[in-house]
Amino acid sequence: MDRLDALRIVAEQVSVCEACTLHHSRKHSVPGEGPSDAKLMLIGEGPGFYENEQGRPFVGQAGKLLEDLLASIGMRREQVFITNVVKCRPPGNRDPQPDELTACAGYLDRQIEVIRPEIIVTLGRFSMAKFLPNVRISDVHGQSFTVRGQLVVPMYHPAAALHQPSLRPQLEKDFQHLPEYIALARSKSGRPTPETHSIAETRSEVLDEPAKSTDNPTQLPLF
Question: Residue 216 falls within a domain, yes or no?
C-alpha cells in the first residue's frame, strides 16, 4: 500500500468514527490535508466553525495567518501536511477533552507513521502536549526537540496570536527559525546535533536531547 492510499484509509476511518461524543455535532470530519510525502507537518488543536463546514483544516482567519507565516519563509500550504490532534470540532470551539484526544490519537499516529515528516511543528498547547507533556509553551516555543526520534518544534497557535496580538511577533520570529531546523534535519548525520536544554533534564523520560540551532545554518533548499 502506498502512502496516499494509507492516508485515504485514515480519512475514511475518521469520517465514520464514533469513538467519542464529538461525532454527534460534526458536520464534516477534518482528517487533514497535504502531500503524502510532506517534509513538514503542522499539527493544530481541532477544527473550528469553518473547518467543520468545509472538512478542511485551517481555513478561517487562523488559516490565513498560517499561510502568511509559511509565505514568510518561502513556502505554500500545498507543500506541507496540516492536521489537528482531534479531527472533529469540539462544540463552541472549547478545548479538547482527554477522552477525545485519546480517541483521535491513533489516527494522528498513523498519519505521522505514513508521512514520516522531517519536522513536526505543533501549534498550541494541546498539540505540543502530545510530544512534550507537562511543560509550558511559553518556556519552549520556537525551540526544537528530538522526541522518540522525531524532530518537533512547538509554537503558539495562530488563533492565539489573533486573540492576543502581543504573541504574533513571537510566532513570526519562531517561524523564521524553521529553515535552520530544516537544514539540521537534512544534515550529514541525518539527526539534529544534540545540545542540552534545561527541559531535557526535567523531562528526560519524554525527550531525547534537544536539537541545536546554528547562527549560520547550512543553506539548503526548503523543499
Answer: no
